[in-house]
Amino acid sequence: MAHKILIVDDEPNIVISLEFLMKKEGFEVAVATDGEEAMAKVASFDPDLILLDVMMPKKSGFEVCEALRADPARAGLLIVMLTAKGRDTEVAKGLAIGADAYVTKPFSTKDLLSRVKDMLGMA
Amino acid sequence: MKAKHRFALAVVVLGLLMTGPFVVTSLLVWLDMREAERNLLTELLLSRLPVGTMMTVFGFVIGVMVLHKLFKQYVEGLLRMAETLRLMLSANRNFRVTPDGPPEVQQLARAANDLAQQRDELMDDVDAQIARAKASVEEEKNRLAALMSELAQAVVVCNLDGRILLYNNRARLQFKALAQGPTSVSGGALIGLGRSIFSILEKNQVQHAQEVIRQRLDAGKAALSNFITTTRGGQLLRAQMVPVLSAGVEGAAAMSGYVLTVENITRSLEQEARRDQALHSLTEGSRSALGSIRAAVTNLIDYPDMEPELRERFVKVVDDEAAKMSQRLDQTMAEFSDSMKARWPLEEVLGIDIIAAAQGRIDEKLKLPTKTEEMDDALWIKADSYSLVLALVFVAAKLQDHYEPRELRFRLTAEGKLAYLDLIWAGPAMSSETFYTWEMESMHVGGDTAPLSLRDMIDRHGGEIWYQREKAAHRAFFRFVLPVATPVAEQQEERSRASNRPEYYDFDLFNFADKSIDLDRKLRDLTYTVFDTETTGLEPSNGDEIIQIGAARIVNNRLLRQEIFNQLVDPECPLKPESIPIHGITDDMVRGQPTIGAVLPAFHEFCEDTVLIAHNAAFDMRFLQLKEEQTGIRFSQPVLDTLLLSAVIHPNQESHKLDVILERLGIQIGSRHNALEDALATGEVFLKMVPMLEDMGIVTVRQALDAAAKTYFARVKY
């Protein structure tokens, strides 16, 4: 069965590329464009991995990440934070609140893909 | 015994000496004789008695005359000499005894004169030495004060109580700029000799810094402390404190005060923050856009066989994000351009000063005459004056080498935010290539060289330079375009007043601790505010209002002409036409000025901890009192009235008007009948009166108040 990936970002221009790429690689993909929708999609879609943007309306990526990590039922969910915030302090924060990886924009989609596969044990 | 009595006694003694032996001998012979012999003798003597008496009287007279002469010369002469010697001792040092009388007395007089001469020489010598020492101390003080006033940093020296002993001009301007409020001197940033620094800087922080310095002193470390504090107006100040040390009793240095250098860092912090923001907007802001582009481009490359519709969408993403990025870049540059450029330290200078300096150098180095044309003499520019002057001289030298102009002319004009500094000459057209090589050459004129080229210099200034011809006038010019600076307004005010020696220091204040008003303190030790008001009329209770308050401070027996309060007040009612010639203030002048409700709190703050002085103070105080209820401001400090004090000193004079007193005390004042000028005149009068009052035994404020209250004039009511 294909791994399920949830893409959460309010920028349609990055979502379109990621969605295209992940589908091409054979993943089952869902998209959310803000924090609240992300929480709902996690419940309905039950993804294996989330690509989570930090700066979003309604609920920031940090908040979503914290909420997900507070739920023991979701302990196995992998979280990759995507962000335009490149400071060391923010990277540290992302990892500290439970993200499994922290990727700073702009990134190489190839690297991201291999990272995702690696995390899902597909390498 | 008085000299006269002694003379009378001497005469009696002489008489007795002349007649006594004869009488006694005669008596003894008489007693020894028999009856017949006595008769014979009587007969013999009686017939010759007149001759004998005459001889005796004659001898006696001669004796008295000799005695009188001797007495005059030796006794009275010496007495006179003693008096003149006393005179020489006290009142008149230059008096000398006239040698007179017998040689012995004359010798004594000469010896006394010689002694006096010797003493005078010694005294003159001592006086001269004291004067020299004083002058050198004074000179040192002035040199220090001059140095301080020229410093670009704000410097304030305080004693341990936080009283200001010295401040420089920069400090004055900086704190004046901090003051916020409707009047010239309000807002809680009052700087002044003897005032407390704590009205400007947070007391706890200053004391903490003091404590840090003490600890560092004890530990033998460099005594210095830094702190950053916020003012009431929200400005950020960085202060550095170093101690003023005086040799302690056990040889250990004790802190007797401190020097604060204060810098307002609000602006530089703001600029830094803006620069940060710009950087942030350029980096973080670009990340998402770049991320989208990169992902889209990678997809386009990696999947060349995707459907045309999808391809279209990815291309659109790239186009879209690239446009967004350019837009952001433009926006950021527009918003932050001010803080992005000019990291080179540029100072604010008057354009004409730069030109004057360049003219001097061109004359000195190139012997080339220069003139000026249209000059905007109020134009301040942002420049590094050294490299700018060097550039002007460099261009002048180049022109001289290539075109040998007879003279150069300068022109300075402003165009919006740009200053145009033109160097004009008459001559043939030059090629733009020539000028281009000049621009790139490193500048050197005579002995002066700079690794900079003209281009570097102009880039540093964020400016431009070009060559332009004025065809009609057959001449050409180089135009230096430089950024215009907005100068601090106060600096110009300072220029006009620079003739006076600054009064920013008073080192005697080191020994002047608690300054709260104690009525039993000496008059000459207190701090005063002399003030005067101009009013719409003479009847405060009948609706007349204050239209101007002028005041100055007296600290340590000195009238400080630079620590003044001078404020026009809008009376919110029309001025009486008949009063205008008296105070010279017109309706136009007071309209738009703050009202009394805004001015009184500021004036109250200016007067804090001082005794008030005014001429005919009851009049001015009545006006202030009538505003008590409206403004909630009470002037509760003691008030001295120079009119009453004049009546104390000269009770028999008819007039105690300010003009009359000024004349009586020999005080020369320029203009009058302006609140500030009158306040200053009143201050001069008071300072003259202090020693006169002291001669009358009126030494303390309490005594002065009591004496004034007893005069007739004190009974006049307003």
Quick structural overview:
Chain A is of the alpha/beta class and 123 residues long. Helices cover 43% and strands 20% of the residues of chain A.
List the helices and strands and how they pair.
The complex is a heterodimer of chains A (123) and B (718).
Chain A: E1 4-8, H1 12-24, E2 28-32, H2 35-45, E3 49-53, H3 61-69, E4 78-83, H4 88-96, E5 101-104, H5 109-119
Parallel strand pairs in A: 1-2, 1-3, 3-4, 4-5
Chain B: H1 3-32, H2 35-89, H3 103-150, E1 154-159, E2 164-167, H4 169-178, H5 203-218, E3 225-230, E4 236-247, E5 253-264, H6 266-302, H7 308-340, E6 347-350, H8 351-366, E7 370-375, E8 380-383, H9 385-403, E9 408-415, E10 418-426, H10 432-440, E11 442-445, E12 448-453, H11 454-460, E13 464-470, E14 475-483, H12 489-497, E15 528-535, E16 546-555, E17 558-568, H13 580-583, H14 587-590, H15 596-606, E18 611-614, H16 617-626, H17 628-631, E19 639-641, H18 642-649, H19 658-664, H20 675-695, H21 701-710
Helix pairs in contact in B: 1-2, 2-3, 6-7, 8-9, 18-20, 18-21
Are there runs of chain A of 5+ residues with pLDDT below 50, and where?
A: none
CATH class of the largest domain in chain B: Alpha Beta
What portion of residues of chain B belong to β-strands? 15-25%
The CATH architecture of the largest domain in chain B is 2-Layer Sandwich
Spans of chain B of 5+ residues with little confidence (pLDDT < 50)?
489-502
Shape of chain B: elongated
Can you describe this structure?
Chain A has 123 residues and is an alpha/beta fold. Chain A is 43% helix and 20% strand. The longest helix of chain A is centred in the N-terminal third of the chain and has 13 residues, at 12-24. Chain A is globular and about 35 Å long. Chain A starts with a strand and ends with a helix. Chain B has 718 residues and is an alpha+beta fold. Chain B folds into five domains: 3-89, no CATH class; 151-264, PAS domain (Beta-Lactamase), CATH 3.30.450.20; 269-340, Helix Hairpins; 347-486, Heat Shock Protein 90; 516-715, Nucleotidyltransferase, domain 5 (2-Layer Sandwich), CATH 3.30.420. A five-stranded antiparallel beta sheet of chain B has the order 2-1-5-4-3. Chain B has a five-stranded mixed beta sheet with strand order 7-9-10-14-13. The longest helix of chain B has 55 residues, at 35-89.
